[in-house]
Amino acid sequence: MRRRLADHAVTIVAVLVLVYLFVPVAYTFIFSFNDYKKSNIAWNPQGSPTLKHWADPCGAPGVCEALGTSLQVGLVATAISTVIGTSMAIALVRLRARGRRLTDVLVFLPMATPEVVLGASLLTLFVQGFSRWGWQLGFWSIVAAHVMFTLSFVVVTVRARLQSMDPRLEEAAQDLYAGPWETFRTVTLPLLAPGIVAAALLSFALSFDDFIITTFVSGDVTTFPKYVYVAYLRGIPAEVNVIGFSMFAVATVCAVVARLVVRRAVPPSSS
User: Fold this and answer.
1) pLDDT tens across 109-119, in order?
2) Where are the transmembrane segments (predicted)?
């Protein structure tokens, strides 16, 4: 018995960890069918389960407006940080310029800085600095803040993919008289595509889920995490559970698709 437990110890621990991680997801899914009265924290046996919240996810006032704001912020911040971060990753790997080590440290600083400190600093910067030129806290201040802390994750992800690439492939393209741009477009970029997609998905997830920094710099604009926090103080509506579980399902599908893309892009090595 002890030997069997020892042989399957890693599997048992992995299953327990996965159960622990997915218990909140299960709670979110189950309570999306709750026919609550004032608060959705306790299960109401009268009238539950019900599908009325799934039939009208926008039934709670302001929930879909907050969701739309988070999606817009996430898409814009992801697009900006992915383009800039990919360019920075290529420059850090391929260019042998002075100050590269200092740049590496500066790239990791936003990842190591506590979100409370970063949010308070950005608030001071926006209010005391940019307000002189008419900059107001709102949509674009949230985008700027999200680009700042997601940029590091994009650089790290794309850089890791770039360092694992075989440089002889680009050298072969140049030997076949391909120019720098043609080599980048036909060789480097397709090989980098899985890393770029993974970085973009990670950037969007971090942006969509952020609450602390957004609270500092959002002003009167309400994002979905901010809406959930305010709703928690008076009772989270079941429509939030519907939207939250739907986003989890979409993220799971995207992760599976990205995994399949990476598996097709990198064929298994033959023995």
Assistant:
1) 778 888 888 88
2) 12-33, 71-93, 105-127, 139-158, 187-208, 242-262
pLDDT tens, residue by residue, 100-150: 677 777 778 778 888 888 888 888 887 776 666 767 788 888 998 899 889
Closest by CA to 116, choosing from 206, 215, 230, is 215
Contact 29, 240 (CB under 8 A): no
Per the CB < 8 A criterion, the answer to whether 54 and 32 are in contact is yes
Beta carbons of 217 and 142 less than 8 angstroms apart: yes
Helix, strand or coil for residue 36? coil
Q: Which domains does the chain have, with CATH numbers?
A: 61-236 (1.10.3720.10)
State the pTM of this model. Answer: 0.79
Burial class (CB in 10 A: 0-12, 13-18, 19+), 134: exposed
The pair of structure tokens assigned to 119 is 């949010």
